[in-house]
Amino acid sequence: MRAESPEVMFSLRGLERHYVQPQDMVDKLGRLLQGRSAPKPVQAVAGIDLDIFAGEVLGIVGESGCGKSTLGRMLAGILEPTRGDILYRGRSTATLAAAARREYELGVQMIFQDPFSSLNPRMRVIDIIGEAPLAHGMIQRAAKEAYVCELMQKVGLDPAYRFRYPHQFSGGQRQRVGVARALALKPSVIVCDEAVAALDVSIQAQVLNLFMELRQEFALTYFFISHNLGVVSHVSDRVAIMYLGRIVEIAPTEIIFKAANHPYTQALIKELPRLYAERHQFDPIQGELPSPSDPPPGCPFHPRCPRAMARCREERPLLKPVGPESDAARRAHLSACHLNEVA
To answer: How far apart are CA 18 and CA 40, in angstroms?
Structure first.
C-alpha cells in the first residue's frame, strides 16, 4: 500500500481523446450531394481527472470500447490528447524539453494485449529485448547478451532461449518476453493493456504473480487495464471503473468489492463468477454500450440503468466523495451518480 504522502506520478486534468474519420474528396462530394453532415468525432476519452501515485497498482476496468486502452496509450506517450493535460512528475508532457521528454518516454513503458503481434517475428529474443537499451546508450554492445540473459532470468525465461524467434515460444513465454522488453529500459511506470487477457487461466496467474514480484524488486507503478474485474482485484491497490470515456467510480480495491456505489460497478460485480454461491438466475447488464460518437445526454449509463430517474437523462453527474462522514476512506472513494443525492 502507498505511504501517507505519496509522490504523484501522473496527474490527468480534463483529458480527452477524439477520433475523426478521415474523408477523401469522394467522401466529401458524396456527403455534399446527399445533404449529409460530416461524421461526428468519436469520443474515446471524454474528460478524465485522475492522480496516479508512485508505487501503486491502479486498475482500470470497463467494457470493450469504453476508452481504457486509449487512456493507457496516452499515458505511454503513444497517443496525444485532443484536450486536457498529462502531468508526469508534476510537469506537463506537452511542454517537456527534449531531455525531459526522453526521460518520460523511457520511464513509461507498455505491455500489449497480444503477446504475438506485439513482437517482431523476424527478430530473435536477444534483439527484441536488447535493441532499445543499446540504441539509447543504456548498455554497451559487448554487455548486451549478459544484460538480456539477466532480464530473461528475472521474468522466468531460460536464457538459453535468447536466440529463438517469437513463434518458438508459448503464449505465456511470449508475454514474459514482452515484460522483459519493457523492463529493459528501466522504467518507473508500466502500462499493462489487457496483458493477461490472451492467456490461459493458469498462465494468467503466473504472469500476475510475476508482475507483483517485479513491482517489489524494481519499485514499479502499474496502470493495469482489464475488462475483468476479478483479475484486477488480485493485483490492484485502487480500481477505477470507466464507462463511455469517463471514470464513474474510483476507490481502494477492498471498498469497490465491499461497498460499490455506482450501479454500473454493482452490475459488474454481480456478473463475476463465484465458486461457492447459491444458484441464481444470471442477470446481465441490459442493452449495449452506446456509440462514443453519439453519447446519450445526462448520465452516460442511464439508458441501461434500472434505477435511472428524470435527472439522470438530463444532467451528467460529477465524481464526488461518497460514504459516511466518519469513514476514513471517504476522500478516496468517488462516484458519479445522482442517486447519492437522493434522501
So the answer is: 10
- The CATH number given to 8-21+41-250 is 3.40.50.300
Query: Cα separations (Å) of 206 from 55, 60, 195, 213, 258?
Result: 21, 20, 12, 11, 26
Mean pLDDT of all residues belonging to the chain = 88
Alpha-carbon gap, residue 268 to 283, rounded angstroms: 11
The CA–CA distances, whole Å, from 145 to 70, 115, 156, 168, 314 equal 34, 22, 17, 19, 61
Q: At a CB cut-off of 8 Å and minimum separation 6, what does 173 contact?
A: 157, 161
User: Residue 262: which of 343, 329, 314, 336 has the closest Cα?
Assistant: 336
Domain boundaries, the chain: 8-21+41-250
What residue type is 342 in one-letter code? V
In angstroms, rounded to a whole number, what is the distance separating the alpha carbons of residues 143 and 111?
A: 24
Distance CA 239, CA 245 (A): 16
Residue with cell 476496468: 61
Beta strand pairing call for 108-111 and 334-335: unpaired
User: What are the pLDDT digits (tens) for 30-64?
Assistant: 777 777 776 778 889 999 999 999 999 999 999 88
